[in-house]
Design goal:
Glutamine Phosphoribosylpyrophosphate, subunit 1, domain 1; binds fructose -6-phosphate; 607 residues; Rossmann fold; alpha/beta; 3 domains; seven-stranded antiparallel β-sheet; 36% helix
Amino acid sequence: MCGIVGYIGRRQAAPILLAGLKKLEYRGYDSAGVAVRGEGGIRVEKTEGRLARLVEKTEGGASLSGTVGIGHTRWATHGAPSEENAHPHLSDGERVTVVHNGILENFRELKQKLTAEGYVFHSETDSEVIADLIDYYLKKSGDPVTAICRFMQRARGSYALGVLFSDRPDEVFVARKDSPMILGVGKGEMFVASDVPALLGETRTVYYIDNLEAAVIRREGAVFYNIDGNVIEKQSVEVTMDASAAEKDGWEHFMIKEVHEQPRAVADTLSRYMKEGRADFSEAGIGEEEFSAERIVITACGSAYHVGVTLQYVIESLARVPVRVELASEMRYRDLVYGENCLVIAISQSGETADTLAALREAKAHGVRTVAIVNVQGSSVSREADRTIFTVAGPEIAVATTKAYSAQLAAGYLFALELARRKGTVSEEAYAGYIKELLSLPEKIKRVLERKEAIGSFAARHQTMRDVFMIGRGVDYSVCLEGSLKLKEISYVHTEAYAAGELKHGTISLIEEGTVVVGLLLQPRVREKTASNLEEVRSRGAHVVAMVFEGEKAEGAAEVWEIPKTEELFAASVAVVPLQLLAYYVSLQRGLDVDKPRNLAKSVTVE
Ligand code: F6R
């Protein structure tokens, strides 16, 4: 949510800031702005809407001269997405210029206090309050670092801040709590960004700013401070991520590129945590302590939560360990009973989702052991969890997750298998069979992708559909949750995922002539049951689409989508692909912005 960048060096800052913002636009895209310090002081340019408008307004940055600057791309929280509310924000008197990612929770109280001190506000944002509060403390202390530290002591909420002071022409200041921030090191120049891919075109040497830390950045390097204003030492890190992974590479959208990267993401994730044909989490430091757990709580948001729902079925079935799945936004505020010997698993692509991070902290505060399944190295969740399993999906840029979801499933299956092996709930023979099945998933996903035209044609015929229901039982139901979310978020079609047996308890009254109902028939034990539920909606006029394994039949369905036969517990990995493609093609047919759906942003760092 919101992307921030900064630059100080010898080159013109504005084009570098705009290029960085382009890479961060997935984090928010309802307005954008930059502040550049030139000969005549700090100049701010901002626009409502997409970054392209700012690029146009500033002639690609050429209209802003100067070698120091900060920039921002916004996902509105406080105040409408207007030019007025766009960042950077200036303090009253224009001594302090700020870009902010996060939410200042006590902004009302602080605004009142500052108003009483004579400050006048020009926007509806919480971020403008930050500029004024820092200005207030600057007046009191005369020192920018002290002013920022005082702000950190007073602020409640989350922030990654880039700050320019009008009387400090050769310095950029930053501070961070619960929103990501990375510094990049160049030769005689330094960069600031909300994530690593935004820096990869410039440098691979980075510093991760930790919670409640600040820094003063000059051309030759940075000095780091803790919240008390004491200097702290930090080690830089070399990033190995492939820069081209964050490019479209000729694909029309990031989403469809990432959908096609799933076979590789699954294969790479499996291979990272396998040795000699067996699951092996020793690289992640996961061993007896974690695998002796007697109960598991999985916590996550959105698609990562859906992975948790799938894993609940898989872990309970394979390892006979009770699992509950908790939405992180709920778990963080409820009085959960963890019980003896509990393990909490937090799942997150970005590793920065505010609710997931808070749920993880809540578990830790109860002394519960934690494991994270995370895609982004160096992210907050990965650093705060006791142990981390890294998915190897590579940077995911499209707002709708696809390959990270698939990689999370792969990591989770391996974890479940290793747990089952240690608990003695699967025989050696069955274990070997499951591993073989896992290793065949990338090929099966590829085969679904080869038949994508059939889904494209369905999307073309049904692009105006109004309501879609997706139904299934067990693992099939968990895939419906994900398929339904994909269709909602990028195609704006109203859909609901339902446990097949539950439809008749009320929701079936919504079925009308032509309502599309997608039924998943991939769980042999309950296949006939779901088939009967499909029959019930068909007889009420529904247009029934059945997803089955190759060679199987679905009597009465108007359309049948076949997918390669897979071990039923791992069916989600293959079955999700047609549903991702459905969402993609419907969005395309409707002429929507596939990669940046309205009202959304990737990496939800606000509650
Ligand atoms: C949906 C989607 C979101 C995320 C959710 C959690 O396509 O991407 O529902 O899954 O916001 O994000 P992470 O995994 O970064 O914690």
